[in-house]
From TrEMBL:
<comment type="similarity">
    <text>Belongs to the TrpF family.</text>
</comment>
<dbReference type="GO" id="GO:0016853">
    <property type="term" value="F:isomerase activity"/>
</dbReference>
<dbReference type="InterPro" id="IPR001240">
    <property type="entry name" value="PRAI_dom"/>
</dbReference>
<dbReference type="InterPro" id="IPR013785">
    <property type="entry name" value="Aldolase_TIM"/>
</dbReference>
<keyword id="KW-0822">Tryptophan biosynthesis</keyword>
<keyword id="KW-0028">Amino-acid biosynthesis</keyword>
<dbReference type="Pfam" id="PF00697">
    <property type="entry name" value="PRAI"/>
</dbReference>
<dbReference type="InterPro" id="IPR011060">
    <property type="entry name" value="RibuloseP-bd_barrel"/>
</dbReference>
<protein>
    <recommendedName>
        <fullName>N-(5'-phosphoribosyl)anthranilate isomerase</fullName>
        <ecNumber>5.3.1.24</ecNumber>
    </recommendedName>
</protein>
<dbReference type="InterPro" id="IPR044643">
    <property type="entry name" value="TrpF_fam"/>
</dbReference>
<keyword id="KW-0413">Isomerase</keyword>
<comment type="pathway">
    <text>Amino-acid biosynthesis; L-tryptophan biosynthesis; L-tryptophan from chorismate: step 3/5.</text>
</comment>
<feature type="domain" description="N-(5'phosphoribosyl) anthranilate isomerase (PRAI)">
    <location>
        <begin position="4"/>
        <end position="200"/>
    </location>
</feature>
<keyword id="KW-0057">Aromatic amino acid biosynthesis</keyword>
Length: 213
């Protein structure tokens, strides 16, 4: 089970999270978000170990801006959280790891994902809201049973210490990782490192349990 922590913004908080060694660290490059990285110093991301996949999160951004920020911050992955088409995703597929996010509710049609199959590396399933993520709310994870494609996915939306153990009940073969964000914050863009430390321990124990099973 991979661990992605998203919405990082403050240099000291980023440095503290680095010591926990998440698999992915997300930086929101979307100005309306309260977790917008703004003019985050490049030196901050340069200090992150290469084993942590630095991920730029974009919402309906132009290819030019995405390319510019990939170069500036040396992003290894991008998460596309807007109305990006399969063709748009394909522009980046062989350059960086591409995650395409979708807001999911009980009526979500997973057939809509088929055109993306050869153009993304992962899907990310978040709770459907009027905004682009960060709601702190979960969706009914039972709807994941309707997902039958062979692209692995990250689970996002309202994951917290209160419901992490429930993830062990999800027996989907394509569940690749979890995305931790607003429910681990003391303020937007500021993570509670001790809560994350506890979460990492729980998630790694879940993975050990699956191997033993």
């Amino acid at each position: 089970m991979k661990i992605k922590v998203c919405g990082m913004r403050e240099p000291s908080n980023i440095e503290a999270l680095t010591t926990l060694a998440p698999d992915y660290m997300g930086f929101i490059c979307y100005e309306p978000s309260p977790r917008y990285i703004d003019e985050l110093p490049v030196a901050v991301t340069q200090a992150i170990p290469a084993a942590i996949q630095k991920t730029g999160v974009f919402v309906s951004e132009t290819a030019e801006v995405i390319t510019e920020l990939i170069t500036k911050y040396n992003f290894a992955a991008i998460q596309l959280h807007g109305n990006e088409s399969p063709e748009f995703c394909a522009l980046f597929k062989d350059k960086v790891i591409v995650l395409k996010a979708f807001g999911v509710d009980e009526q979500f049609d997973f057939e809509l994902l088929k055109p993306y199959l050869n153009h993304v590396d992962f899907f990310l399933f978040d709770t459907k809201t009027d905004k682009h993520g960060g709601s702190g709310k979960t969706f009914d994870w039972r709807v994941l049973d309707k997902y039958t494609l062979n692209v692995p996915f990250f689970l996002s939306g309202g994951i917290s210490l209160d419901n992490l153990s429930e993830i062990a009940k999800i027996e989907h073969p394509q569940l690749y990782g979890v995305d931790l964000n607003s429910r681990f914050e003391t303020a937007p863009g500021v993570k509670n490192i001790e809560d994350l430390r506890t979460a990492f321990k729980i998630i790694k124990e879940l993975g050990t349990h699956e191997l033993r099973s």
